[in-house]
């Protein structure tokens, strides 16, 4: 779940639902076709995305972005962009982001860019096809990938990434390695294996 403009947004399993709750208004049980519901159902994006791994509120104050794995038996998860001003959604398939992979970590960057980190894990019961996870940078306006790279060869997931006040991105790979990434130079500037000292980070599903 994330907060934006005094409302709360939830990525819901199963089915890949996006719902919006206004805590300042009375609770009205959710019905898919009832615009008077609170929480309000905004979108359903199955089969491309049924198990949300990440949901973020973009600092543009209008966009909610959600990534996750696809339907059971499938490989490669979708990426949802929901515009709260236009009340519209854009759903990208894995082939439009990173084929046979799922966006697990998402970080808004300056100048309308989005940093993503993938996982090679398929939907439950699906076939794992990709050999290593990637970092990518997408242009938010065009929804086109401008850069992608297996920054850590052999890594299977970018478990978590967060933007720091200095513009650097802190992240974790495979629940065991901490890293610092400079999105301007697209270079890793620091790494540390934290597994031996702390064990694996949490968890199997969101929240992490």
- The number of helical elements comes to 1
Tell me how many strands there are.
Answer: 16
Biggest sheet features: 4 strands, antiparallel
User: What percentage of the residues does DSSP assign to strands (E)?
Assistant: 35-45%
Proportion of helical residues: under 10%
What's a concise summary of this model?
The chain is mainly β. The chain has one helix and 16 strands.
Features:
mainly beta; four-stranded antiparallel sheet
Overview of this protein structure:
The chain has 208 residues and is mainly β. It is 2% helix and 45% strand. It is built from one helix and 16 strands. It has one helix spanning 195-198, and strands spanning 2-4, 7-12, 17-21, 40-44, 51-57, 63-69, 79-83, 88-92, 102-109, 113-119, 135-139, 144-149, 158-163, 169-173, 177-182, 187-193. It has a four-stranded antiparallel sheet with strand order 1-2-3-4, with no helix packed on it. A hairpin with a 4-residue loop joins strand 2 and strand 3. 34% of the residues are buried.
């Amino acid at each position: 779940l994330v907060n934006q403009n005094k409302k709360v947004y939830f990525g819901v399993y199963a089915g890949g639902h996006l719902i919006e709750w206004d805590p300042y208004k009375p609770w009205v049980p959710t019905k898919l076709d009832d615009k008077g519901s609170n929480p309000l159902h905004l979108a359903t994006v199955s089969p491309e995305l049924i198990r949300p791994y990440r949901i973020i509120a973009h600092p543009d104050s209008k966009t909610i972005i959600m990534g996750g794995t696809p339907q059971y038996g499938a490989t490669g998860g979708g990426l949802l962009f929901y515009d709260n001003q236009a009340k519209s959604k854009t759903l990208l398939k894995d082939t439009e982001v990173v084929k046979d992979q799922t966006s697990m970590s998402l970080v808004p960057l300056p100048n309308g860019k989005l940093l993503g980190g993938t996982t090679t894990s398929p939907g439950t019961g699906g076939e794992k096809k990709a050999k290593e996870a990637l970092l990518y940078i997408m242009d938010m306006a065009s929804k086109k990938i401008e850069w992608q790279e297996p920054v850590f060869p052999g890594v299977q997931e970018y478990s978590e990434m967060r933007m720091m006040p200095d513009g650097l991105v802190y992240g974790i790979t495979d629940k065991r390695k901490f890293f610092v990434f400079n999105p301007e130079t697209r270079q890793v500037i620091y790494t540390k294996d934290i597994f031996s000292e702390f064990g694996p980070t949490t968890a199997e599903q969101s929240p992490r």
